[in-house]
Amino acid sequence: MTTETLTALRLHDCRFERFGTAILPVDDMTPHSDRDAQLVFESVDLRYYVMRLRQKPAVLLNMTRHKRATQCLGSADAQPWWLAVAAPDLLPEQLDYSTVQLVEVHQGEAVQLHQGTWHAGPFFLSSTALFFNLELNDTNLTDHNSHRLSPPITLKLTQSL
Length: 161
Description:
This protein has 161 residues and is mostly beta strands.
């Protein structure tokens, strides 16, 4: 079985608005604008926490989406990281090398995913990493829709300057 290799685009170069909002640094007291993340949660019970992850192989085996809420992710330890994403309107069987985008997120940047955006990761180069995560308190129990990819997709995790 041959696998394709995805190369990353930087967050601000990849037309991320198809998948969510790129959360980039702004000066304090900057007025709210349409470039800010628009959050949607069908529940009032939210969970905001620092998530500890262990490194996993840079191979895309599965993708997940959350239909009931947006999700926000950002590095809590100032590391670059990568996220595989696909448009929320895709059917599970449409997920493949041609429909998935690998996004590189630098320190000081974060993402908000639209409801239903397919995603996998975060992927990173160190053995462990910390992430700020905002989601429903029961997302992983009640809103965790996954699909196994066949064939898997290799991810090229190369840090850009």
